[in-house]
Amino acid sequence: MDLLIRGGTVVTVGNRAQVDVGIHNGLVVQMGGTMSADREIDATGHFVTPGGVDPHVHLTPPTRRADGWKWSDDFESGTRAALAGGITTVGNMSFPERDETMADAIVRDDAEAKKLSLADYFFHPVLMYPSKENLATIAPLHSQGHTSIKFFLSFRSFDRHVPEFLEAMRIVKQAGGIALIHCEDAAIIDCCCNLLREAGKTEPRYFPETRPVQAESVSTYRAVGYCETTGCPCYVVHLASARALAACHDGRSRGLPVYVETRPLYLHLTRQRFADEDGAKYAGAPPLREQSDVDAMWAALAFGNIDILATDHAPWKLAEKLDPTLDAANLRQGVADLETSLPMLYSTGVLGGRISLEQFVAVTSTNSAKLFGLYPKKGSISVGGDADMVVWDAQETRTIDGASMHSRSDYSPYDGFEVTGWPKFTVSRGEVVAERNEVVGKPGRGQLVRRGPHRAL
Ligand SMILES: [Zn+2]
Predict the structure, then answer these.
(1) Distance 284 CA to ligand 1 centre (A)
(2) How many Cβ atoms are within 10 Å of 457's Cβ, its own excluded?
(3) What is the pLDDT of residue 68?
């Protein structure tokens, strides 16, 4: 063996047992029994879970926007944060430029990731312009292992092209993929922004009112209807409200392949934060909601009505978030979360008694690997699978300080939170890539993972 994880308690979705894990050539080759290895990690007294599979990150910005905006992280700093936080595989949103097809965007982003990424990665082609040419690339991209598309109901262009987007969903269904859908209604958002502007309510603290719950719930119901009509599996990204959850529940209770993602912001913070002087730093779409929505997210995570916790990692510098030229209608959206997501879920969720450790594994790794065609290579600890795993120190307590963490964002929306439970070792394809806070993996070691078809949960 190259590496032996000895004495740990291995936790998967269905099982929990103290078992030694033997690793050779990047794969798990033996579980239990007599083994020796070049390197041993003593995991006695520690949990060992599958490496996180975060299917929703932004590590490649659109490259030629006139306003020059850019998220703070690229594949290098972003995946460094991921490995420090126990995430070993990331799914990046690949945005084509106006003159590019989705296939062009994947080639461009892959060239960058190949050089920079420390973690394994895959791509979701973003369908911005549903031209004939673009629709024609969906099936070939699926054959090449990019078995999903993403689109946004929050962009004005969506409502001008609904028939083409439904056509895209039929193609995805046919090809065995899944559609990721950003569910917020563009017209409602525009109307709210106009009403607020007319009332003189343009400061950042009005941000939640620019994108209210009805914008999310109406749009989520549409996605469920599109799923029902086309048969295309639908994955609702970053769901934030109890009412939008009810829309998904409506579809799921009738057996529709509707899947739900939430993100850490909606578990740990409420819209109360927008009353703060620096409330703009919490802006993301949808906005932070009420405590009752937070409670609904936790209950749904615990009982499987939410399938996946993903970060939607889209970081900015604090000064960019608090830019005084911005108003409620155009705040910069997104935060850094790749390093904090799993530890905070462990701390507040598992130690806080809200979810089981097995459910922690399901929502951070296994469900994502299944839905996005990576299972059982990723998302499990099993013989023949990639040796991606995290040895946890469930006792270690740290105070969040975004400025000193691995993302190039210089703050965290959770600065000052006390979090117990951090990765002690992160292992990716058999290589120890992070030890406690120190990331030792090198840029360029990450590999593109070509995916199989979507798999129902
Ligand atoms: Zn996103």
Answers:
(1) 9
(2) 14
(3) 67
- CATH number of residue 318's parent domain: 3.20.20.140
Q: How many domains does the chain have?
A: 1
Domain coverage including residue 207: 51-371
Q: Is 41 contained in some domain?
A: no
Which residues, listed in sequence order, are joined to residue 309 by a DSSP beta bridge?
Answer: 262
Q: How far is the CA of 457 from the centre of ligand 1 (A)?
A: 22
Specify the residue for token string 């995570």. Answer: 301
Query: How confident is residue 67, by pLDDT bands cut at 50, 70 and 90?
Result: low
376 pLDDT band (50/70/90 cuts)?
A: very high
Q: How far is the CA of 425 from the centre of ligand 1 (A)?
A: 28
Task: Kindly state whether residue 112 falls inside one of the protein's structural domains.
Answer: yes
- Residue 420 lies inside a defined structural domain of this protein: no
**DSSP-assigned letters across all residues of 334-383:** ----TTTHHHHIIIIIIITTSS-HHHHHIIIIIHHHHHTT-TTTSSS--T
Distance 40 CA to ligand 1 centre (A): 38
- 132-136 long-range contacts, CB within 8 A, separation 24+: 133/101, 134/96, 134/101, 134/102, 135/164, 135/167, 135/168, 135/171
| Separation between Cα atoms, residue 116 and residue 73, nearest integer Å | 11
Q: Is residue 378 part of a domain?
A: no
Strand partners, 17: 10
* pLDDT band, residue 69 (cuts 50/70/90): confident
Bridge-based pairing of strands 9-11 and 87-94 is unpaired
pLDDT digits (tens, 9 = 90+) for 249-297: 999 999 999 999 999 999 999 999 999 999 999 999 999 999 999 999 9
Tens of pLDDT, residue by residue over 138-172, are 999 999 999 999 999 999 999 999 999 999 999 99
